[in-house]
TrEMBL record:
Superkingdom of source: Bacteria
A GO MF label: hydrolase activity
UniProtKB keywords: Hydrolase
Name listed for the protein in its UniProt record: Glycoside hydrolase family 15 protein
One Pfam family it belongs to: Glyco_hydro_15
SUPFAM superfamilies associated with the record: Six-hairpin glycosidases
InterPro entries (UniProt xref): 6-hairpin_glycosidase_sf, 6hp_glycosidase-like_sf, GH15-like, Trehalase-like_N
Domain GH15-like: 215-581
Domain Trehalase-like N-terminal: 2-178
Gene3D superfamilies membership: 1.50.10.10
Amino acid sequence: MRIEDYALVGDMHTAALVGRNGSVDWLCLPRFDSGACFAALLGGHRAGHWLLAPAAGGTCAGRRYRDGTLVLETTWDVPGGCARVLDFMPPRQEAPDVVRIVEGVRGRVEMRTELLLRFDYGEVVPWTRERGGELAVIAGPNAAWLQSPVPLTQESRPRAATASFTVAAGERVPFVLTWQESWRSRPHRLEAAEELANTERMWREWLGRCRYRGEYAEAVSGSLVTLKALTYAPTGGIVAAPTTSLPELIGGSRNWDYRYSWLRDAAFTLQALIGAGYSEEATAWRDWLLRAVAGDPADLQIMYTIDGGRRMPERTLDRLPGYEGSRPVRVGNAAARQFQLDVYGEVIDCLYQARQAGLGPEEDAWDLQRAFMDYLEGAWREPGNGLWEVRGPRRPFVHAKVLAWVAADRMVASVERQGLDGPVGRWRALREEIHQDVCAHGYDPGRNTFTQFYGSRGLDAALLLIPRLGFLPLDDPRLAGTVDAVCRELTEDGFVLRYRPEADGVDRLPGGEGVFVPCSFWLAHALALLGRRSRARALFERLLSLRNDVGLLAEEYDPGHRRQVGNFPQAYSHVSIVNTAEALTAAAPSA
């Protein structure tokens, strides 16, 4: 199946992908970055899946999320009747649960289920036994139970549990899959109908707090639900995506593990949450950030685990063929140890925004910012790997230098506007020095555009962020020139590439990638800020049309094959929907 053929269900600890064929093909338990027990997405059905669909097979007639919820409703029309399947994960209580309820809508429908649990990304085949009228599965530290009124048959090959049953109009047949550490006792059994009502109520109450009232309310609401689903509730950390190794180009090697939290997303994620009225979630994200980055400023990482950990060693799972043959399949992310100058500015900007929004107490945050600024004063001239974690030589990336300016600017503003104490004169001087340096070395006057790095002729989509960072007034012709250059040189079919890997030898990895969805939203946002509202709106609405049937977007899009690529769903794509919708709502109409 295509990446966009999947929908998401989750419990704010982990998430599952459910295909249009009724199969759960991806689920990591007990949390986002745990080993997968359903890994068919990357390894085929023998790597683990859970099918629940009409016995006749095929794809569904339609599906949707129930209004204001993350409860997936899939409808199947077959000869003789109609049935629907409700898929959801109740908010985490004692243990993670996946609930699937089959409802008869019309006539009679013969259904089939096949459960193939394979722990550790498909490698571990568990023991399966019937105990107390339910299925019990165990292997090493993992145990699971499948609760259902339908008797299941254990098949020796491929060691799956299967069942066939008929559902008639008005009938409900529930299935509840529960996971627990194998040394613990079985968690209490859930009542599927009760959990359905509780889950729907929780999501609707949460979404009811949204204060966005613009014309793109449907898109904003759906994106906020997705962001909430990608939040690790115990810590407030937000994963970039719940998947690993979905390729940026089908068959290519740019396949990365995105089940971590990136600092590059910090300020814009906070902006999206605050703008939509979710101060509690914004505070939790801010607090995760403070815990994660605490320590020596020289040791700051570009990403952390969802609990703020620093270790995510990268390895490949060579036994898995990868999504549509896209190898390698990677677990962990070696880019965590790269040096990216921009993260200091992103953290400082995030904490400044949090203070401006009046978020709750933040002990020692100002001391942390001052420590970061002390380090940055001596390090801002250093080359780095850049926002896109290029696996090539370090460069003086323009975006990184602009973020160093942002750091100095927000420190000055913290003293002048928020009454905090610090050497503001020194920071003003540094701010001016960085500004002059960027304009002298990172700008190409012949083409009227900022460039990817000092001395480069290449462009970088991150330059589209300059208009909203306050580096130059919005009427400065260099901003319009940069936006025009990106449109002219860094787009494909009207969508924005991150950069051109072949330009200036910046990237030493083989193969290309699709257009980057968040960057295309950045272009729409920049156009709105520059007063080109009609163009911004047209691009924004075209980008919204790339969402799948349940409103989800991956990291990238392949215009040639008209399909989504990259990890899915991508938090930053949905953050960009919220922020761009806000910008379009706030922008004055163009003449």
